[in-house]
Amino acid sequence: MQQKKGTIFSGMRPTGKLHLGNLFGALENWAKLQDEYRCFFSVVDWHALTTAYEDPAEISENVKEMVIDWLSCGIDPEKSIIFRQSDVKEHAELHLLLSMITPLSWLERVPTYKEQLKQIEGRNLATYGFLGYPLLQAADILLYKADAVPVGEDQAPHIEFTREVARRANYLYKKTIFPEPATILNEYKVVPGLDNRKMSKSYDNVIEISIAPEKISEKVRLMITDPGRIRKNDPGNPQICSIYAFHHIFNAAELSGIEESCRAGAIGCVECKKVLSSRMQEFLEPIYARRKKLENSPKIIDEILEEGRKKAVKVARKTMEEFRSLMGV
Ligand code: TRP
Ligand code: SF4
Q1: Is the pTM higher than 0.85?
Q2: 226 in contact with ligand 2, CB cutoff 6 A
Q3: Domains of the chain
Q4: What pLDDT sits at residue 232?
Q5: Which of 124, 233, 286, 316 could connect to 90 by a Cys-Cys bridge, CB 3.0–4.6 Å?
Q6: In DSSP terms, which residues pair with 274 in a beta bridge?
Q7: Looking at the CA of 51, which ligand is closest?
């Protein structure tokens, strides 16, 4: 095997089917990193429980759905270690030990904490688990001594927090046991939702990665174009049109032609959407085909998770042996 640059850890919460925003905001980045780094990709089901503890029924099914989404988008178990967080109990133990050395004030000032407390209504999040959630994330990362963590911008404060915890452990026990992980900000492509807001499950405006190819044109038809364009030959403004943003992703070769024709009023939105739908179908068909194959042999997913568990546990045990002895237990 070629020499890899270092270790990467990243995780996603199993909260349901992934959408195109997740593909172009995260998974595409992960897939690229696989050749250069030793990658650990974890379906973090304990993290899902920090907010969904009252209604956990779907979590275990969602774990498998998520792995299918990952694999169909090119996350490769031959290259990367794919596992379920709760299969490796060392995450919980490291979380516990790190909780001894983590000042409460560090957790209280994590910016996502107060925001989410306010935002997520109808659930009681004044729990110990929810406050400690960034520390569980830090434990995920430090357990594998990751050198870098690919995340979206919203997660950057958690990686900064992880570095602070690593520094404190290294300082207290006079040994550089944990590297301070770098943040790799995911490159992302702008993916508007059906209503032209950001694509997000909470807005109910998503196109799922697992969409059947024949359903794509239906979704595309719903999408909002330049609202100022009433008649077919009105000049349009592609910059404010979500169809155009999608051409950017799926139809780069014809992009400048589309832009010109739109501005000149030479192409109608119906036609423009038709072209996009067929490009999207071409792109998403192989992803769908891989998914169907996996759905037809569900045992493969269990096997991949078991393989991943074995590999992850090996590394996790070693870190814990070291860290336990530093902490005198
Ligand atoms: N907190 C991340 C999120 O909500 C998920 C996550 C958990 C994670 N552990 C991680 C991400 C470790 C990167 C590294 O998206
Ligand atoms: Fe958007 Fe295409 Fe219509 Fe222009 S022609 S407004 S890019 S859908």
Answers
A1: yes
A2: yes
A3: 7-191+298-327 (3.40.50.620), 211-292 (1.10.240.10)
A4: 83
A5: 316
A6: none
A7: 1
Task: Count Cα neighbours of 245 within 13 Å in the Cβ-side half-sphere.
Answer: 24
Of 76, 92, 40, 43, nearest to 314 by C-alpha is 40
Ligand nearest to the CA of 10: 1
Length of the chain: 329
| pLDDT given at position 47 | 96
Q: Please, what is the angle between helix 299-326 and helix 59-72, to 10°? A: 100
Distance 250 CA to ligand 1 centre (A): 28
Ligand 1 pocket list (CB less than 6 A): 9-13, 44, 47, 137, 140-141, 149, 151, 155
Alpha helix (H) ranges present in the chain?
Answer: 20-22, 28-33, 45-52, 59-72, 90-101, 104-108, 111-119, 128-131, 133-143, 156-172, 216-222, 242-250, 255-263, 269-296, 299-326
Bin 204: left if φ > 0, else alpha if -120 < ψ < 50, else beta: left
Closest-lying ligand 2 atom to the alpha carbon of residue 259: 7
Q: What is the CB-side half-sphere exposure of residue 254 using CA atoms within 13 A?
A: 13
pLDDT recorded at residue 141: 98
Q: Please tell me if the CB atom of residue 244 comes closer than 6 angstroms to any atom of ligand 2.
A: yes
Region class of 88: left (phi > 0), else alpha (psi between -120 and 50), else beta: beta
Query: Relative to the CA of 267, which ligand 2 atom is closest?
Result: 5
> What spacing in Å lies between the alpha carbon of 44 and ligand 1's midpoint?
7
> Which atom of ligand 1 lies at the shortest distance from residue 47's CA?
7
Nearest CA to ligand 2 atom 8: 269
- Do 113 and 107 contact (CB within 8 A), yes or no? yes
DSSP state at residue 83: E
At residue 52, the pLDDT reads 83
pLDDT along the chain (329 residues), means of 10: 84 95 96 97 96 86 96 98 98 98 96 78 82 97 98 95 98 98 92 92 94 96 91 91 96 96 95 97 98 94 98 98 97
SS3 assignment, position 10: strand
Cα 275 to ligand 2 centre (Å): 11
Q: How many CB atoms lie within 10 A of CB 136?
A: 21
